[in-house]
Predict the 3D structure of the following.
Amino acid sequence: MKTADIIIGLGFGDEGKGITTDFLAARNPDAVVIRFSGGQQAAHTVMIGSRKHVHSSFCSGALRGLPSYFTEHCTIHPVFMYNEWKELKSKNGNTSLHIHPLAKVTTPFDVLHNRKDIRNTEHGTCGKGIGATMKRHESPYRLFAADLIAPRAMLIEKLKGIASYYGFSDGEEIQAALDDFVHAIDQMEWKIEGYSYLNTFDHMIFEGSQGILLDMDHGIFPNVTYAHTTSKNAHEVCRQIGIDHIEMYYVTRSYATRHGNGWMSNEKELSLQNNDEETCTFNEYQGAFRTGDLDDDLLNYALKVDEVYVSAHRRHLVVTCLDQLDTAFKTENLKVSFDTVLGSYAPDSEAFRKICWQK
């Protein structure tokens, strides 16, 4: 029987999906980790002893030694991917990466447009071209993972078309970006494979990106991401490859967070402790990393939204950053019954523990 764990963030992202993925990877060392939304904007931090890695273009089981798979619902950027491949290799992580042929490729022109478009910076952007890539794919100017292994002359012609789509003309900045892009493609060993690759595994760990409150259908427009951040895509893949036994892992910090613009309830500046390893900090594109008290009503909303897509045998709640609480985490205001509630007090997944049990 094939089984799957699906990890979903209940907030605006940054909940602890990376540490949860690593926790499940440690329990299932023969599994594969699958990204089913988002792309190179992820910043999922994993610490194993003295080793630390921020996973973006590789899944958060890679430092633990598990292979990565990116589905057709994801974006990839060859330059970011190549840079992370070198870093991960230096840390003895697993650099085996398989990509669905229809995963969308971000080009340097998407990134430049993303960073220079005022509307993007006002709405919220990580500056890595994901929104621009998804929008471009609604036009005829598409570029898929399969094109990375197409004849080079064909790839170059497609890239020229994408440059003209954005109105870019020849220049030193454009040529330099294109040279870096092609160089990165040449350095990588591309494993472009459909879902048949996943049939070689009995257990799969689906690693979500961002959180339900940023979902393109369920978030507050325009401050949303261009992706389904619910379990929708993961369940579609499970149906395609015949997985029947699914366990859900819903993740939240012990307090609320949001990185960048947009509405946020209960916002206030919290005095955090033991957060020297915090990945989310101010940057010029997203702006400030914001905090606040956890909102049970928003948690219940996110759980209700995902209920539409879920067909799971067991549901688990994961609460990270428990060291920020002076009192025990309470679940009585949540309207979903969980099989287990797990918590972490540190960025190292060895600090996970069961904090309560619900029948």
